[in-house]
Amino acid sequence: MRREVPIAITFFTGVLLVVAFFIPHEPFGSLEQRFNDWYIIVSGFAMILGLDSLLLHHWNKVSRRSQDWFHSLSLILAFFITLFWGFYSGIHTGNFLSAQSTFRKYFYLYVFVPLQATMFSLLAFFIASAAYRAFRADRFEATLLLFSAGIVMLGRVPMGNQVAPWIIGFVLLLFAFLLYSDGRKEVDSLRRALKFGGAILSLLLIYPLAWFFLKYTAATAGWIMNIPQLAAKRGIFIGIALGGIAMSLRIILGIEKTYLR
Q1: Confidence of residue 234 (pLDDT cuts 50, 70, 90)
Q2: Domain edges within the chain
Q3: Residue 247: CB partners within 8 Å, gap ≥ 6?
Q4: Minimal CA–CA distance to 198: which of 179, 214, 213?
Q5: φ and ψ at 167, to 5 degrees?
Q6: Average confidence score pLDDT of the chain
Q7: Are the C-beta atoms of residues 164 and 154 closer than 8 Å to each other?
Q8: 66 phi and psi angles, rounded to 5 deg
Q9: Pick from 136, 138, 153: which is nearest to 224 by CA?
């Protein structure tokens, strides 16, 4: 019974939500909003249980003097200082984030906000590292991704139209030089001719491409974002939706039972 009752409740509520979504009439019309209210209440209790589990885990590390127990002690102290200071400022001012609140003046603005900004600023380095790994032009797809990302970045900055021709010209010159250098080392005459031809073509494309991006950098970036990028994003969203539907059906029908562990 410890497993059958939760599965039956999950099946019943899942079917009711599906019915309420497709039949917006009473008595099903108000069920979705009522279930959402219950979800908020349950999630509040789940957050309390999560905080209890978090504090108990770190308290056990402090009591056992485990590795890095000092960080656990810092977390516990910060949690209770924040909690009681927020209650104290809220009782005295009516709102713990009001302009007169000491919690807002000395903790929220000068501690929490800088720490939050620091955490988000660290994401820039992870994004740069991921971009370096993804944009290495070792394949045609990676080269196309690198070129598209460069156009989009140039189209999003105010001086992108003026800077783009110089960047495009430099890239084409570098590409021509690399093709010429590789062509001189080739033994096969056909491959050498192809690389020399690619170098000459790169030099010939400098002026027309520079002129094009001088005029249409922002428009090209907008086209990339609105047509191919949006099409790929919609495909990803459709896949996510189908995956969510499949997982929901597995949970409603009792096939997926990991939430009972």
Answers
A1: very high
A2: 1-66, 80-134, 137-226
A3: 256
A4: 179
A5: -65, -45
A6: 82
A7: yes
A8: -70, 180
A9: 153
130-172 pLDDT per residue, tens:
777 766 666 767 777 777 888 888 888 777 778 888 888 888 8
How many other C-beta atoms are found inside a 10 Å radius of the C-beta of residue 224?
17
In this structure, is the dihedral angle defined by the CA atoms of residues 236, 238, 239 and 241, taken in order, positive or negative?
positive
Dihedral pair phi/psi, residue 124, rounded to 5°: -60, -40
Cα dist. 211→37, 155, 166, 206 in Å? 58, 15, 10, 9
In whole angstroms, how far apart are CA 156 and each of 87, 116, 145, 148, 166?
44, 26, 17, 12, 17
Q: SS3 letters for 226-256? A: HCHHHHHHHHHHHHHHHHHHHHHHHHHCCCC
How far is residue 103's CA from residue 110's CA, in Å, rounded to a whole number? 10
Please tell me the least confidently modeled range out of 27-31, 167-171, 250-254. 27-31
Q: Are 103 and 97 in contact (CB under 8 A)?
A: yes
Helix (H, G, I), strand (E, B) or coil at 97: coil
- d(CA 225, CA 231) in angstroms, rounded, equals 9
Tokens in use for 181? 């250098």
Q: How far apart are CA 76 and CA 60, in angstroms?
A: 11
What does DSSP assign to residue 257?
A: -
| Residues ≥6 apart with Cβ < 8 Å to 131 | 149
* This prediction's pTM: 0.59
Two structure tokens written together for 217:
């950098």
Q: Is 230 a residue whose pLDDT tops 70? A: yes
